[in-house]
């Protein structure tokens, strides 16, 4: 899923054209922040939040311990939140 697909999916739940535009813009901001994560953080973030995988599944898929996956996920979420903090 890319930013356009995610924006369209999210906007489909919005009731007005203005809400659809806001939803697409928000997805684009999040997507831009995610693209700036390290490769490992981005992979873990996407597997968890886009693919909806469990921590144990992610650990197995990427060959890391569950603790390491949790650490990467936590750092990724903090970085995305920090980048979006001034743009809400």
Automatic annotation (TrEMBL):
Q: Which UniProt keywords apply?
A: DNA-binding, Sigma factor, Transcription, Transcription regulation
- GO BP term, pick one: DNA-templated transcription initiation
Work out whether the entry's keyword set contains Transcription.
yes
Annotated stretches, region: Disordered: 1-20
**MF term (GO), any:** DNA binding
| RNA polymerase sigma factor 70 region 4 type domain boundaries | 29-79
**What PANTHER family does this protein's entry cite?**
RNA POLYMERASE ECF-TYPE SIGMA FACTO, RNA POLYMERASE SIGMA FACTOR HI_1459-RELATED
Q: Which NCBIfam families match?
A: sigma70-ECF (TIGR02937)
Know the name of this protein?
Answer: Putative sigma factor
Organism name: mine drainage metagenome
């Amino acid at each position: 899923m890319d930013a356009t697909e995610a924006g369209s999916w999210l906007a489909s739940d919005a009731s007005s054209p203005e809400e659809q535009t806001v939803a697409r813009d928000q997805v684009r901001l999040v997507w831009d922040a995610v693209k700036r994560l390290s490769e490992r953080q981005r992979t873990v973030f996407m597997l968890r939040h886009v693919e909806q995988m469990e921590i144990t599944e992610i650990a197995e898929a990427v060959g890391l311990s569950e603790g390491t996956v949790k650490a990467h996920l936590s750092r990724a979420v903090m970085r995305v939140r920090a980048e979006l903090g001034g743009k809400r």
